[in-house]
Amino acid sequence: xxxxxxxxxxxxxxxxxxxxxxxxxxxxxxxxxxxxxxxxxxxxxxxxxxxxxxxxxxxxxxxxxxxxxxxxxxxxxxxxxxxxxxxxxxxxxxxxxxxxxxxxxxxxxxxxxxxxxxxxxxxxxxxxxxxxxxxxxxxxxxxxxxxxxxxxxxxxxxxxxxxxxxxxxxxxxxxxxxxxxxxxxxxxxxxxxxxxx
Length: 197
Hints:
With about 200 residues, this protein is of the alpha/beta class. It has two domains: about 5-140, P-loop containing nucleotide triphosphate hydrolases (Rossmann fold, 3-Layer(aba) Sandwich); about 150-190, no CATH class. It has ten helices and six strands. It has a six-stranded parallel sheet with strand order 1-6-2-5-4-3, with helices on both faces. Strand 3 (about 55-60), helix 3 (about 65-70) and strand 4 form a beta-alpha-beta unit. Helix 1 (about 10-20) packs parallel to helix 2, helix 4 crosses helix 6 (about 115-125) and helix 6 (about 115-125) crosses helix 10.
């Protein structure tokens, strides 16, 4: 199974509450496959209610770095949800990664993203990925963002496309021989080996 646990939005909010006001938390919430707007609003409401702070949503797509930095620091202690449903370019992730210290703030940053966008972040923004650490959650009442059948189908697609087995990918990951490609990041995560990213 993938490395992340599935949590309802209220439980994600509780985890942030436990960390305290000045935890500077960076968290990834992987979006469900359906009703994304409705679920995003539910997450925003739960965060705001439980943490007793305003929760703002900022779309990363089309946002310049200077504008993002400014938005994150005015104010710097509320909750910000950065949405990345559509994949950003590798250059955009790399630029954000180089300037990550300018994005640090007192309030939590929650990345609301698709599995594909998370794979891109992991491949092209390794420093931001290290800020996030193990704080990766799939949103949902129970089960994963993918059914086991969907996960197996996706793994079979990757095996067919690249002509490599799951075992070969894990071995290459352990030896740090995998290319910096979002498909390989996704592959490791689907195998429950996100620790090799």
